Amino acid sequence: MSSHSGATDDPTQKPLNSQEDLLKTSENLNETTPKPTHLSPLEQANAEKLAKLESEAKVSEQEFLKAKE
């Protein structure tokens, strides 16, 4: 490990500007965030509905990206 400040760009890290990379990054963030367990039944239902919509959107986006190739 070199002793520089870390302000220089790491050439091995590619910029996260593609939609898929951003998606993966936010996915990882979501996985590490503990879900609160003190939700009311309504909040729980809304959270599940939202999670379902998000996963459906993710799948359709991946299909779209594959079709575009």
TrEMBL record:
Domain of life per record: Bacteria
InterPro entries: DUF3519
Region (Disordered): 1-44
Residue spans of biased composition, Polar residues class: 14-35
Official protein name in the record: Uncharacterized protein
